[in-house]
Amino acid sequence: MMKLIIAYIQPDKLNDVKQELFKQDIYKMSVTNALGCGQQGGYTETYRNVMNEVNLLKKVRIEIAVTEPFVEKTVKAIIKAAQTKEIGDGKIFILPIEDVIRIRTEERGEQAIG
Amino acid sequence: MNKIIFGLTLIVCTALSATSAFAEDAVPATPPAATETVAATPATQAPPEVKSLPAEKIVAETNGDGTTVSQKDENDTFSHSLTAIWLLVCGALVFFMQPGFAMVECGLCRAKNANNILMKNVLDFCIGSVVFFFIGWGLMYGKMGVEAGKFIGFSDFMMHNSGDMLSWFFQVVFCATSATIVSGSMAERTKFTSYLVYSLVISAVIYPISGHWIWGGGWLSELGFHDFAGSTVVHSVGGWSAMMGAIMVGPRIGKYVKGEDGKIHVRAIQGHNMALATLGVFILWFAWYGFNCGSTLSGLAHASMAHVAVTTTLAAAIATITAMFSSWIIGGKPDVSMTLNGALAGLVAITAPCDVVSPGAALIIGAIAGVLVVLSAMFFEQVLHIDDPVGAISVHAMNGAWGTISVGIFGNLAALGGMHTRMGMIGVQLLGVVSVFAWVALTAGTLFFILKKTMGLRVPAKEEMRGLDIGEHGSEAYSGFQFFSNM
Fold first, then answer.
1. pLDDT per residue over B296-354, tens digit each?
2. d(Cα B134, Cα B143) in Å, to the nearest integer?
3. Averaged over B203-219, what is the pLDDT?
4. What is the chain B residue with the closest CA to A35?
5. Is the dihedral of CA B132, B135, B136, B142 positive or negative?
6. Which of B465, B474, B482 sits opposite A45 (nearest CB)?
7. Is the Cβ of B133 closer than 8 Å to some Cβ of chain A?
8. How many CB atoms lie under 10 A from the CB of residue B432?
9. What pLDDT was estimated at residue B482?
10. Chain A residue whose CA is closest to B471
11. Pick from B35, B57, B309, B455: most CB atoms within 10 A?
12. Are B305 and B228 in contact (CB under 8 A)?
């Protein structure tokens, strides 16, 4: 079984999360900037003294594809680094992966993931 | 192919004939200009002990040859006007250093702090010029009784009795240059309000008092200390303040990280826009022609102005080259921001000696400045662990000191007033460097310490991570763009 772990975290926690993952021998990931809203709500900016409600907040999205034994390790590492117990810490989603194909070698499945 | 060669030959021939035609035109004009230059050199290169306008003196001399009163009046007005035009143009050029600093510092910061650094650069000029009017000018160029005080001037606040508008305008832009140096070294973590208080104090007290010692007729100028356009007066004062500020505010989060092995690792925090940083350096270089050439303080000192322009150009150019090669040898690649620092280092170093050294000596001074800035930046960053995002300490403090000492090493002793032997001159310059360092370290250190204990110097960690733009100013510099704000 292979899983895709998608985590949305606070942008300033990215370095901590990366370091914590490295400690668990998890090196492969994709990182993108994301905008989103959830429980945290928005915040206000002001521009030329005019209030500007910003409700899409900056988050960082990390995607990691792992085999079953790595799932819990990955989740724990992300929580350990990204948790402040304050609203806005983010979410982790775990999805099943049907197949993985490495384009260079055409390997499939667990051979392609690592 | 043949066509291309023919075309090229044609272009070269045209260019050659044009050059020779120009040369023929130019030849008859050259000799008188050259002799004039030689004759004028000793007079115009005398050290400007007191930075006031020498126009009166020149008119008095020319009146000795039997000219009529009306002619005298005419000469008088003419030379005053020339000086006024020259100093106003140069003063405006020095003012243009403000956008230069703003662009350099903005480019070398991260995108999330761009608004904050721009605001600091705008506000330090504005606060500085207002308090320089109320307090600074009086302390720097005021008198103590009838004479210029040894350590401090104390008259003419708000210019109420001299009304020397021209000198005030030319001096206020120098004061602002000194004040704006600090924002770079304390960038990305300093509270906006505390920075405003700092910029008020440096322009009101710190800069004017040490400036009085050197340009206002104080004790250092009496000793024959020479700082033509302000390597020490302007740049070292700003640079040492920058150092005290950077020490007191501490490094940015993520700059020095303690590893698993217990050692502290130095991380590079990259600036977000090297195009802005480069533009800023070119603007500063451009403005430096006003800074140095205008410090002749006279519209009649044409030989001196040109001499200063040449030494300034050469020192900056060679310093850029040596800084690039230093970073190339040490780091393996020619580093952009170190090379940019090199240009500024050469300019800072040549600022004190530009009128009393030959172009050859300017090349040596600049070459050393370029190497010095790279080594110094690495020393402060990697050995002392003082976090200076733009290299302000190495550019302004270290090279300000080097430029000031280089006056003693390479300066023409006769042009320096002939008061000292070579070793004596070096000694006087060293004394100036050390005493200004002590003054600034003490006053700026105390100021930042008090600010730290009362208002607080630093923004909260959370705000620093998110960026000072939102925390301090409520809006972003690059709205609509996406950045990794963890960086």
1. 999 888 889 999 999 999 999 999 999 999 999 999 999 999 999 999 999 999 999 99
2. 15
3. 95
4. B482
5. positive
6. B474
7. no
8. 31
9. 78
10. A45
11. B309
12. no
The answer to whether residues B107 and B337 touch, using CB atoms and an 8 Å cutoff, is no
Cα B458 to Cα A113, B463, B464: the distances in Å are 45, 10, 9
DSSP string across B299-327: TT-HHHHHHHHHHHHHHHHHHHHHHHHHH
Q: Encode B348-366: b = buried (16+ Cβ within 10 Å), e = exposed.
A: bbbbbbbbbbeeebbbbbb
Which two three-digit tokens encode residue B223? 């000793």
CA nearest to A34 within chain B: B482
The residue in chain A having the minimum alpha-carbon distance to the alpha carbon of residue B469 is A45
Q: In B, which residues are within 8 Å of A45 by CB distance? A: 470, 474-476
Q: What are phi and psi of B446, to 5 degrees?
A: -60, -45
- pLDDT tens digits, residue range B427-480? 999 999 999 999 999 999 999 999 999 999 999 998 998 899 999 999 889 988
Q: Which residues of B17-37 are buried (b: 16+ CB within 10 A; e: fewer)?
A: eeeeeeeeeeeeeeeeeeeee
Chain A residues within 8 A of B485 when measuring between CB atoms:
11-12, 58
ipTM over 0.90: no
CB pair distance less than 8 Å for B254 and A15: yes
For an interface test with B, the pick among A52, A58, A86, A89 (most B C-beta atoms closer than 10 Å) comes out as: A58
Distance CA B365, CA B360 (A): 9
Across the interface, of B466, B474, B486, the residue whose CB is closest to A46 is B474
The Cα–Cα gap between B30 and B87 comes to 27
Out of B466, B474, B475, the one facing A12 most closely (by C-beta) is: B466
In sequence order, what DSSP letters do the residues of B35-59 get, joined into one string? HHHHHHHHHHTS--SB-S-THHHHH
CA separation for the pair B402, B236 (Å, rounded): 10
Interchain pair A47, B482: CB under 8 A: no
Q: Which two tokens stand for residue B304?
A: 């001196």
Residue B29: band (very low, low, confident or very high) from pLDDT cuts 50, 70, 90: very low
CB-CB neighbors (< 8 A) of B111 in chain A = none
Which residue shows structure tokens 């009017």?
B133
The DSSP output letter for B157 is G
> Does residue B9 register a pLDDT over 80?
no
Residue B365 confidence class, pLDDT cut points 50, 70, 90: very high
Task: For residue A56, give how far its alpha carbon lies from the nearest alpha carbon of chain B (Å).
Answer: 12
Contact criterion met (CB < 8 Å) for A15 and B485: no
The whole-angstrom separation of Cα B278 and Cα B340 is 7
Q: Chain B contacts of A33, Cβ < 8 Å?
A: 482-484
